[in-house]
Amino acid sequence: MTQVLDGVQRSTFPVKLFITAGIVFLIFFILPFLVGVFQTALISKLLLFGALAISLDLVWGFTGILSFAHGVFFTLGGYAMAYYLKLNLSSTNNNYGVELPDFMVWNGLEQLPWFIAPLKFFPVAVLAMVLVPAVFAYIIGWFIFRSKVSGVYITIITLAISSALTTLFISQQAYTGGTNGITDVAILTLLGIEITDINLYWVILIFTTLVLAGSLWLTRSNLGLILRSINENERRISYLGYDVASFKIFIWTLSAAIAGIAGGLFVPLNRFISPVYLAVAFGTQVVIWVAIGGRGTLFGPLIAALLLGQVQNYAERVTQDWQLIVGILLLVVVLFLPKGLMGLVPRISPDKLLIPSPNPSAGYVQARLLDWFTPLQGSFRTVQEWLTRGNRRH
Amino acid sequence: MLDFGLIQAHTLYLAQDATATAEASGGIDFYSFVNQLLNGIGIVGVLLLTGLGLAITFGVMRIINLAHGEFIMLGAYVTFLMQSAFQMDLLLTIPFAFLGTALVGAVTELTVIRRLYGRPLETLLATWGLSIVIQGVVKLIFSAQLKYVKSPPYISGNLLLMTRQDGTPLISISYYRLFIIAIALLMLGITLYLLYKTPLGRQVRAVAQNRDMAKCLGVNTSLIDLLTFAYGCGLAGIAGAVISSLKSVSPPMGQDYLVDAWMVVVTGGVDKLIGVLAGSFLIGESNAAIAYVLNDPVARVIVLAAVIVLIRYRPEGLFTVQKRA
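Output (C-alpha cells, whole complex):
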C-alpha cells in the first residue's frame, strides 16, 4: 500500500533527468570551443546520424517495423537541399556561365528540369526536404500497411526500395549527378549571412535535441502506448478497435520526415550527397546503430551512433576492417543482448523514461551465454547419435 | 526449350532467306530482340541457381537468410581457390564449392540460426551481421582485389542458331549461358528428387508442414534443420561456382545477387519448389525484354517495383495455391 502511495506521490515530472539532460546539452553546446574544427564537423555529422537512428527507432523499436529504407528518406531530404545549394551556386559563380549545374551541362541538358527548378528558392527547398521523403513514405506506408503483408516481407520491400532507388539515381545521371551525386555545393546562406560550421553545429545540436525530446514525449504519450502495443500484439490491438494501419502509416511518415530533415542538414555540412547514402549498406548502418544502442530506448541509438562514429574514426586509422568489427558487434548484440548496449545499463532513474525491463546485469549476460552454449552441446549429441545409429532409421 | 528454339530458328532462317533484304531494318530489330531474350535465358539460369538455395532455406525452413549472397560468394572463392591451387577445371570444382559452403552453412546453423528459431526479424538481423562478417573475413584472407576464374574452353564460344548468308551471327546464345541454365535445371531436378522421392525428403517436408507433429512422430527435427540449411547453402555455393567466371570474384559480389534471389523467391512463392523456376523465368525474361526497349537500370527499377506491388497483393507468391487460413 505504501509502495503504491509512494508511486502516486512521486512527481511525474522527471526533474533529475531534465537536469542531467540540461548538463549534457550544455556540454555539447560548448564542445566546439573545446575540440578542433575536425571534431566539430565529425560530431555534427554523428548527431545527424543519431537523429536518423532515433527516427528508425520510432518505427522499429516501438512499432516493430524493421526498415532498411531510412537511408533513402535521409538521402531524399539531402538531395532537396543539395539542389538548392547547387542552383544557388550556379547562378552566382558558375564555371560554365549558365544557370545549369555542372553535371547537367556535362550530360547535355539544355535547361533546368521543371521539377528541379523551384528548388532554387529556400522555402521551397526546405518544404521539399521535409515533404518529399514524407510523401514518399506515406505512399509506401499506405500501400503496404493496409494489406496482409507481414513484418518480414515489409523489411524485404524496404530492401527492394533501397536497391531500386540506388539503381535509378545512378542511372539518371543528367538529373541526379549519377554515382558522384551532387558535389561542390554552395555554402548555406541565410538572410545574407553565411552559416559557418560552428553555427551549423548548433543548429544540428538543437535539431537532434528536439528530435530526441519530441520522440520521448511522443512515445510516453498514449499514442506511444498504442504503438508499443502494436509491436507486442498487433491483432489484439486491432480487436480493441484501433486502426493499426493508420498508426503505422503515421509513425512511418513522421519518421521519414525526421530522416529527411536530418539529410537536409547533412548536405551543407558534408558539402555533397551521393547515392552511397541511398544504398542498402547505409540503411544497414542505421539499423546497426539502433540494434547496438538498444531498440525502443531512443537514447541508445543516439549514443550508439555517436560512439560508433568516434570509434570508427580512430579505428580506420589502424585497420581497414572496420566493417568486420561492426558485423561481429551486430551478431553479438543480436545473439546475446537483444536489448542492445542500453540493456546493460541498469535503470538510472525511477522515472519511466526507459522502457521497463527485467533488470539486466552481468548475470544476465552470463545467462545468455549459457543459453547459447547449451543447444550447441545438444546438437553435437544429435550428430553423434545420428552417426552411431546408422542404418537403423528406416 | 532448346529444341524449340532451334526449330524456330531454322524455319525463320528459311523465311529470312526467302525475303532476303526486303525488311532489313525491321528484321534486324527482331533478331536483336530474340538475342536479348536468349540473353535473358542466361539471367534466368543465374536467378534460378541463386533462388533455389533460398527457396530451400526460406520456403522449407522459414529462415530469412540475408547471408545468402555471401554463401554464393564463398562458392565462387572455393572455385577460385581450387583453380589457382590445383589448376582444376571449373566443372570439377562444383562439388567442392557445394561441400565447402554446406559446411560453413552447417556451422552457421549450429551457432546462429538455431538460437533464433521463431524470431524471424532477429534471424534477419543476425544473418545480415553474418554477411558482413563473412565479407570481412574473406577480405582479410583474399584481400579486396578482384579475382578471375577461367571458364573451361569447351563451353566458351557461341551456339549459332542463325547466321546471315555471309556467316556473321544473327541469332546466337553463348554455350556458357546454356551451361548455366542446364546446371540450374539439373540442380532443380536433384532437389525435387531429394525432397519428394527420398525418406529424408519426406522428413524435411514433414518438418516444414508441422514441426511439432513431426517431432512427435520421431523425426529428428534439429538434424533435419541442420541438413536442410546446409543443403540450401551448398546450392548457393554451386551458384557461386558457376557464376564465378561470368564476372570477377570479389568479397561484395554476393550483395548483387541477394536482392535478386529474394525477388525470385517472393515472386515464385515457396509453396512449391517449381515456383522458383516460374519466378526466375518471369523476372529474368521481363528484365531482358524491358531492358531491350528501355535500358538496363530502368528495367531493374521497373521489375523491382513490379515485385513490390506483387508482394503487396500476393505475399505468398504468384504460383501458390491459396490455402484456407
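The two ends of chain A are 64 Å apart (CA to CA).
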